[in-house]
Amino acid sequence: MPFSSGAVQVWISGRVQGVGYRAATRQQALALGLTGWVQNLPDGRVTAVFAGEAVAVQKMVDWCHQGSALAQVTQVMVEPYSHSLSPGFTIS
Asked: Where is the active site (predicted)?
């Protein structure tokens, strides 16, 4: 589903912690020219915010369904994001 908004927050479920998911997410986001952040959650999911051109944001959301080489993604939830972001892309 395409997003007209330039920013979204995603929650990724599955085997996504301890498999290089956050580092791979940052690398992919920077390659697409996006800003935002990615972090592990205590419940085993990963959450991230991606902001930039709508086409690049959609490509990033699509990428999240696959993730890093060792990840096993079972679900990606997406919502619009309207808070301000610092420049760059950080891992928490």
From this structure: 22, 40
**Domain CATH number, residue 55:** 3.30.70.100
Gap between the Cα atoms of 25 and 22, Å rounded: 5
CA 67 vs CA 4, 78, 82, 83, 85: distances in Å: 23, 15, 24, 25, 23
For residue 1, pLDDT beyond 90: no
Catalytic residues: 22, 40
Q: Is residue 1 part of a domain?
A: no
pLDDT, average across residues 11-15: 99
Question: What Cα–Cα distance (Å) separates residue 70 from each residue in 4, 16, 19?
Answer: 31, 8, 5
pTM greater than 0.85: yes
